[in-house]
Structure formats: C-alpha cells, structure tokens
Specification:
1% strand, globular, 314 residues, two-stranded antiparallel sheet, mainly alpha
Length: 314
C-alpha cells in the first residue's frame, strides 16, 4: 500500500487539485458540490467531509499493515473505530448528514465490524499463502516486519491471549487445536456482539421516540464536532446534541428530528447485518475461527439484508 501517496492524494484533493484518478476526481466532485451548496445556502451549510478522518484512516491502516499485535482489546476497538467506523462517518457525511445520533450508532456498528474483520483474518494471517514468486521483490529480502507477515502472525489482543494462556507459537503450530484459542476468540467476539447489541438498542430507543441511552464517548474529539445547523426543508436550527435550538422546541421535536436522521442513515448501518450473521455462525461452530464455512458466503445474507432494510432493524 502506498500510504504516503494516499496522504498526498487526500491533501491535494481537499486543495481542489485532485490527481487524474477516479477516486480523487469523484471525491473532489463531492467536495465541490458541498461547497457550492454552502455558497448558495449560507444559512444551511451541508456537513463537509473531514480531511482529518481520511488521514486518520490512512495512518491507522499503515500502523497495523505489518500485522503488529494489538496490545489490548481496547486498542483493537480503537483500530476498528479509526477504520471501519470512520468509513461509516465519511459515508454519512457524503449523504450529506451530520448527526451526532447517527454517528453514535455507526460508531458501535463500525467497531463490531472491525473486530469481526480481525477475527475472520486470523486463519489467513496465521497461515499465509505462499509468496508471489513473480514479484519484483526478493522473498528473502525486506525488513523484519515484512518477514513477519510472510511467516504468519496472530492478531488477537495480547491481554486476552494472556488471560486465556494462549501463545502465538501454539497457534502457528497447532492451528485450531491451540490451547486457549477458542476462549480468546469467545472473549473478543463477545465484545463485537456487545457493540451490535448496543447499536440495536440505541436504534430502537430512537425509533420509539426516546433517547439513545448513553453519551457518545468520542464527542468533542478532533473530527467529532457537531455544530449548530439547520435543515434544508424546514429551516429549524439544530444544536450539537440533536435538540432543536433557537426556538425553544421541546423533547418531542428533538425525538422527531432524531427519527428523521436515523431513517436517512439506515442504509449506512447495513454492515451490521453481515457482521451479526458471521458472529452467529461463529457461535454455532463453538468459536472455532478456523472452520472452513466461516470463510464462505452466507446464502442468507441477501434475504436477511432485505428484511433488515424493510423493517429498519438489524
């Protein structure tokens, strides 16, 4: 991966000088569209895509590109937040939608999806395929980190491995039969499941006219700013916590606005569906992450996705 290339590409695109490639050109078009709308409706600027979020995504991917271990389960969650959740935030911004409520739900879905992605990759990273001998680089060359990738790695959080007395060498030697592997996978998968349960309950609360239930832990951090803005259709001002501002609107108005936001955002929440299905299959297989069926497509996904979208519940 050419990480510096992508940093430079994002920087030049946000400076309205995109390189002649499809992704930068399309991104520049979206940015220009937002800017034009902001100029024509200065009282209601649309949410802008965040450059800092793009750069945070690239930096986090680079940090773990060599399959470096996650020191703790919390650091794995942080990786998922800075990658999978961030992609959902950017998608919401492109709709355009700048909603604390929608981002909060997306944060939990992204964390669950990111954790599941790491679990799914364990067999492939522990036993990587043979090197590509047609590559221009030597199979014996490269840095120590490069050779680590070639020789296999276990990306479970180190604190969870310690709790379960799981050793990396046992996984690389014994695979699915490594002592403590299922226990470690169970603990990590449980955290992903907890995030899905939380997101599901938050969505239900909003749809029923209630509050999400807890504060957004990332609110106030860089890239997580929710300022006063107005809605295109009704011109009502919205404060950063999702309540109506400037007009003394009541909690009923706040609830209706949050309902509108999650309705508009629901398509972005759909990664929760395959994430939940995979976790169900993992549980059914007694948390054996090496099972072959976990690396095949789930034939139920199209139907489950259709039902989830129709019912507005994942």
């Amino acid at each position: 991966m050419r990480y510096q290339f992508w940093r430079d590409t994002i920087t030049s695109t946000f400076a309205h000088k995109p390189v002649a490639q499809p992704i930068p050109v399309l991104l520049s078009s979206v940015l220009s569209s937002h800017q034009n709308d902001q100029g024509s409706k200065s009282h209601n600027p649309p949410p802008a895509l965040s450059k800092s979020r793009f750069l945070r995504l690239i930096t986090t991917r680079e940090k773990y590109s060599t399959n470096a271990p996650y020191p703790t389960l919390t650091s794995l969650e942080s990786y998922a937040e800075n990658t999978y959740s961030t992609l959902l935030y950017l998608t919401l911004s492109a709709l355009p939608l700048n909603s604390l409520t929608a981002d909060h739900i997306a944060s939990h879905i992204g964390k669950a999806a990111g954790i599941v992605a790491v679990l799914r990759g364990i067999p492939l990273l522990a036993f990587p395929p043979p090197p590509n001998h047609h590559s221009n680089s030597s199979a014996l060359g490269g840095t120590l980190e490069t050779r680590r990738v070639q020789q296999g790695a276990v990306t479970l959080p180190l604190d969870i491995m310690a709790e379960c007395n799981l050793k990396e060498e046992d996984v690389l030697r014994c695979g699915a039969d490594a002592p403590g592997l299922k226990d470690a996978v169970f603990k990590v998968a449980t955290r992903a499941s907890d995030h899905l349960i939380t997101a599901r309950q938050m969505l239900k609360n909003v749809q029923r006219g209630g509050d999400v239930g807890h504060g957004f832990e990332h609110e106030g951090e860089e890239g997580y700013d929710y300022h006063l803005e107005t809605n295109d259709s009704d011109g009502v001002q919205l404060s950063k916590n999702g309540a109506f501002g400037g007009g003394g609107a009541d909690d009923g108005g706040k609830s209706e606005r949050q309902k509108m936001e999650v309705e508009k955002a629901f398509g972005v929440f759909m990664p929760a569906v395959p994430t939940a299905l995979w976790l169900q299959r993992l549980e059914k297989g007694d948390f054996d992450v090496f099972r072959e069926d976990l690396r095949t497509r789930d034939w139920r996904l199209p139907w489950k996705a259709w039902v989830a979208y129709r019912r507005r519940m994942f």
